[in-house]
């Protein structure tokens, strides 16, 4: 079956620099969108996000993929009466041997994009894309020198309860994404207190090959189900912390789930560790309000120390287990965002914790494994074998942390250590987007936005 969409590279040279391309659908037809559509593209980090009502993903391509084809009964609707504008987001990544300091980006003009195939013969099911995972943010901290670091991004049941239809949705393909040090990704499904079989599990990820993968059978997700993107990283080759972000030297933990029937209430379902969880994971009880540079108020033995100094001097080797426990069991901010790039009504202040799972799946090795060459087949044959396990949530100090974190002072303190380490570490981290962070360090991934206008109503599908 031919692809529904596929990459189109401007040249053989550009193919080696384009890391991923995402086509977004924009809701409405505001004068601001009209003006932007007539301008040239701009760096993503300089865009005024408040006027970009473009939070629905139509198509996503990542390096290593040749494109994607929908099942015969499913297509993505291009509806001119609801969406006249589409936004193309393109990320460019330098090759490994070009990670030099200071960065020396090459001058380059590129016109790469996506080729879409569409038809006026509508299919029976409209597809949608749901992003599940950890919101790309500095609060996603990965300690250095560890072979097995677990991060989890939660799509909480309050989000799916409000958005999904009564009969649920069916996930039929997933794109699972980390950056350079990601090793495994799993999309978990929790219903009430029971963990069902993982929807997808990649035990050997390759950041240069993260395309959409069709599931053998669609998986139904019901209203109230919780989805968890679980990522495992190997940071053993790094001596500095890795922070979450959009550049390839930072990290991410995201799963793009293709599903049907489409709903527009929920397009982005992420989580973000609360600020109390982050500072408690570093052995800090309280920060000095309004301090710049950010200083620690308690415990007494750390009083007066800056946050940056704490990150530099922290004994990750001996404190890793407690760090991992706090980050996985502490509070987080649940983010349920709609197609209009706004929180769903009633979800603005959701606080979440890890689920209290009392029943989870467990594969039991048996003679059925002997001589089997199809591990996936054995996996599904054993899907109903469970073991009862109880887990207790740890109620760390919560509260509204938006005010203290809104001025980026804390983020600057966290990223400054990472930025300086990049100078001497070929596999270190950049300081984040140069246009958004007060660090003066250039990113190694460049992202541009370009508007495209569609005037007719079709569904993306093979002709």
Automatic annotation (TrEMBL):
GO cellular component terms, alphabetically, are: extracellular space; secretory granule membrane
Please report the stretch or stretches of sequence annotated as the Copper type II ascorbate-dependent monooxygenase C-terminal domain. Answer: 126-271
Q: Which residues form a coiled coil?
A: none
Domain Copper type II ascorbate-dependent monooxygenase N-terminal as annotated: residue spans: 5-93
Give GO terms for biological process.
dopamine catabolic process; norepinephrine biosynthetic process; octopamine biosynthetic process
Q: Which UniProt keywords apply?
A: Disulfide bond, Glycoprotein, Membrane, Transmembrane, Transmembrane helix
Query: Which is an annotated Pfam family here?
Result: Cu2_monooxygen
Q: Which GO terms describe its molecular function?
A: copper ion binding; dopamine beta-monooxygenase activity
Q: Answer yes or no on keyword Protease.
A: no
Q: Which residues cross the membrane?
A: 439-458
Q: Organism's domain of life?
A: Eukaryota
Q: Which family does it belong to?
A: Belongs to the copper type II ascorbate-dependent monooxygenase family.
Name listed for the protein in its UniProt record = Copper type II ascorbate-dependent monooxygenase C-terminal domain-containing protein
**Which source organism does the UniProt entry give?**
Anopheles epiroticus
Give the source lineage, highest ranks first.
Eukaryota, Metazoa, Ecdysozoa, Arthropoda, Hexapoda
């Amino acid at each position: 079956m031919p692809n529904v969409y596929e990459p189109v590279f401007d040249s053989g040279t550009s193919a080696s620099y384009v890391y991923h391309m995402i086509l977004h659908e924009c809701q409405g037809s505001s004068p601001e969108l009209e003006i932007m559509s007539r301008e040239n593209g701009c760096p993503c980090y300089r865009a005024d996000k408040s006027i970009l009502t473009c939070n629905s993903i139509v198509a996503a391509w990542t390096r290593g993929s040749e494109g994607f084809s929908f099942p015969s009964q499913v297509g993505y609707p291009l509806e001119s009466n609801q969406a006249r504008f589409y936004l193309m987001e393109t990320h460019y990544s330098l090759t490994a041997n070009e990670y030099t300091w200071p960065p020396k980006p090459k001058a380059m003009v590129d016109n790469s994009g996506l080729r879409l195939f569409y038809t006026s013969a509508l299919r029976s099911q409209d597809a949608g894309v749901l992003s599940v995972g950890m919101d790309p943010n500095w609060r996603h901290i990965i300690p250095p020198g560890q072979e097995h670091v677990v991060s989890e991004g939660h799509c909480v049941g309050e989000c799916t309860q409000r958005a999904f239809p009564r009969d649920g949705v069916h996930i039929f393909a997933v794109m699972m994404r980390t950056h350079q040090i990601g090793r495994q990704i799993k999309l978990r499904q929790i219903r009430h207190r029971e963990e069902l079989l993982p929807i997808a599990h990649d035990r050997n990820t390759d950041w240069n090959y993260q395309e959409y993968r069709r599931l053998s059978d669609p998986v139904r997700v019901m209203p109230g189900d919780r989805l968890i993107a679980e990522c495992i990283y190997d940071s053993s080759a790094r001596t500095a912390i890795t922070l979450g972000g959009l550049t390839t030297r930072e990290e991410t933990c995201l799963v793009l789930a293709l599903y049907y029937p489409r709903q527009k209430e929920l397009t982005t379902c992420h989580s973000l560790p609360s600020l109390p969880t982050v500072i408690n994971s570093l052995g800090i009880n309280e920060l000095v309000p309004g301090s710049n540079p950010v200083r620690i108020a308690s415990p007494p033995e750390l009083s007066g120390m800056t946050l940056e100094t704490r990150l530099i001097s922290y004994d990750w080797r001996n404190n890793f287990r407690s760090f991992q426990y706090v980050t996985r069991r502490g509070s987080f901010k649940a983010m349920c965002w709609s197609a209009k790039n706004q929180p769903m009504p009633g979800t603005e202040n959701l606080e979440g914790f890890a689920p209290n799972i009392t029943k989870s799946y467990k594969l039991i090795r048996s003679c059925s494994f002997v001589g089997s060459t199809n591990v996936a087949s054995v996996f599904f044959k054993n899907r109903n074998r469970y073991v009862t396990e109880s887990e207790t949530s740890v109620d760390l100090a919560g509260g509204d942390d938006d005010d203290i974190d809104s001025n980026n002072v804390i983020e600057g303190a966290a990223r400054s250590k990472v930025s300086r380490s990049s100078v001497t570490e070929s596999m270190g981290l950049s300081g984040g987007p140069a246009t958004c962070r007060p660090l003066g360090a250039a990113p190694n991934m460049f992202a541009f936005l370009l508007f495209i206008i569609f005037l007719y109503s079709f569904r993306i599908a093979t002709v």
